[in-house]
UniProtKB/TrEMBL annotation:
<dbReference type="Pfam" id="PF02391">
    <property type="entry name" value="MoaE"/>
</dbReference>
<feature type="compositionally biased region" description="Low complexity">
    <location>
        <begin position="197"/>
        <end position="206"/>
    </location>
</feature>
<dbReference type="InterPro" id="IPR001453">
    <property type="entry name" value="MoaB/Mog_dom"/>
</dbReference>
<dbReference type="InterPro" id="IPR036563">
    <property type="entry name" value="MoaE_sf"/>
</dbReference>
<dbReference type="InterPro" id="IPR036425">
    <property type="entry name" value="MoaB/Mog-like_dom_sf"/>
</dbReference>
<feature type="domain" description="MoaB/Mog">
    <location>
        <begin position="20"/>
        <end position="183"/>
    </location>
</feature>
<dbReference type="InterPro" id="IPR003448">
    <property type="entry name" value="Mopterin_biosynth_MoaE"/>
</dbReference>
<dbReference type="GO" id="GO:0006777">
    <property type="term" value="P:Mo-molybdopterin cofactor biosynthetic process"/>
</dbReference>
<feature type="region of interest" description="Disordered">
    <location>
        <begin position="190"/>
        <end position="239"/>
    </location>
</feature>
<comment type="pathway">
    <text>Cofactor biosynthesis; molybdopterin biosynthesis.</text>
</comment>
<protein>
    <submittedName>
        <fullName>Putative molybdopterin biosynthesis protein</fullName>
    </submittedName>
</protein>
<dbReference type="InterPro" id="IPR051920">
    <property type="entry name" value="MPT_Adenylyltrnsfr/MoaC-Rel"/>
</dbReference>
<keyword id="KW-0501">Molybdenum cofactor biosynthesis</keyword>
<dbReference type="Pfam" id="PF00994">
    <property type="entry name" value="MoCF_biosynth"/>
</dbReference>
Length: 388
């Protein structure tokens, strides 16, 4: 679903409307990594002219208290938590509340439960469309417990729970694009169906004149430059064996072994004859950091790092199902110029390969518990990942 209105028209239509994005992430709330999903929803709302503060980031366990405080103001469900005191200053209840995270099935995923308690008019069609859109890209999207609907107190507001992944948030926004403003108009007492019906052409109305499409335009319709950066012919899908080889985590590892010696073999096992693009990110030890010269450094990691690395890579590949990924990170002492972090992504087309490589590099650096001890030229020692 894509809005046919211009950005200017959307901003005019949404004048005076407000939004709020709540991110459920215990680790982001603790400052262990930067939120990268909630900001997507915040920017999307702002672009539409919906006044939205920065995302409110709370620990998973505090989400029920925040939802209670937002919609009842008195925590009447008996849930208390530190997050309830973190609500931004709001003149009134937002017109749109989007959450990110806590939609899974683990014991700590409580966002959906908290929202379901306050929903007064569920909108199952929106959730169904989310599952359809997400499931077409990632089969495991059906494991999400996405809900959407209206909370009627203290004033009507639309609420939707989105996954914690960037891809999941984008899928949810894709569903809302084109229907959100109509929904909000109806909540405000507008969006009159009869008025729209009165404007519809009658049977006696003259049919529109046929439009001539130049040959060049027809050709352009079959050869599109997509937002992913991948230029190909969408009307001609890849053969079935391509899909059978993608959506794969080829390998992950944390090792003290030099990554330079693994580079060639890693590319060999990641690429296949069906892959037309191989994207590589090589994180190399530089000789400076924060304005200081660096002599040497040592990486260390938490015992769970290997498990977290695998988990992160699987999550990113799930949101980029057209790729194959190989990821490794060094630990131990390294010299300037050594290869510390290696990401290799293969895909049939360059757009998905580039996008997945960038997200893998960002997510691994943000979420995997690996720390860096740096010996500076000045004689001082700094820790990256611990001092912050």
């Amino acid at each position: 679903m894509t809005s046919t209105e211009s950005a200017q028209e959307l901003r005019a239509r949404n004048a005076g409307r407000t939004g709020l994005v709540i991110v459920a992430s215990t680790r982001a709330a603790a400052g262990e990594y930067e939120d990268r999903s909630g900001i997507i929803a915040v920017e999307w709302l702002r672009e539409r002219g919906i006044d939205t503060p920065d995302a409110l980031i709370v620990a998973d366990a505090d989400v029920p208290a925040v939802i209670d405080q937002l919609f009842t103001g008195d925590g009447s469900t008996g849930v208390a938590g530190a997050g309830a005191g973190n609500l931004p200053e709001l003149d009134a209840l937002p017109d749109v509340v989007l959450t990110s995270g806590g939609t899974g099935i683990s014991p700590s995923d409580v966002t959906v439960d908290a929202v379901e308690r306050v929903l007064t008019r569920p909108l199952p069609g929106i959730a169904a469309e989310f599952f359809r859109v997400g499931g077409a890209k990632v089969p495991t999207a059906i494991l999400s417990r996405c809900v959407a609907g209206i909370v009627d107190r203290p004033k009507p507001a639309f609420v939707m729970t989105l996954p914690g992944s960037r891809g999941g948030v984008r899928d949810g926004l894709e569903v809302l694009d084109g229907v959100l403003e109509h929904l909000l108009d109806q909540l405000a007492g507008g969006g009159d169906h009869e008025a729209k019906a009165a404007q519809a052409p009658t049977a006696e109305a003259s049919p529109p004149a046929p439009t001539h499409v130049p040959e060049s335009s027809a050709a352009e319709q079959n050869h599109t430059l997509h937002g992913s950066g991948c230029c190909h012919r969408p009307a001609v899908p890849d053969p079935p064996h391509v899909a059978e080889q993608t959506g794969v985590v080829v390998h992950t590892r944390i090792t003290e072994e030099p990554l330079e010696s693994l580079l060639s073999s890693a590319k060999d096992v990641t690429a296949t004859p069906a892959m037309g693009a191989v994207s590589t990110f090589e994180g190399v030890v530089r000789d400076h950091d924060g304005g200081e010269l660096v002599d040497t450094l040592t990486y260390s990691c938490h015992p769970s790092a290997a498990h977290v690395l695998r988990e992160v890579v699987e999550e990113v590949v799930a949101t980029h199902p057209d790729v194959r990924a190989w990821v490794a990170h060094r630990t131990g002492p390294l010299e300037i110029g050594d290869l510390a972090f290696l990401v290799i992504v293969a895909a049939a087309h360059r757009g998905p390969a580039f996008a997945a490589t960038a997200e893998l590099a960002d997510q691994v650096k943000a979420r995997v518990p690996i720390w860096k001890e740096q010996k500076l030229r000045s004689g001082a020692t700094t820790w990256v990942g611990l001092d912050s």
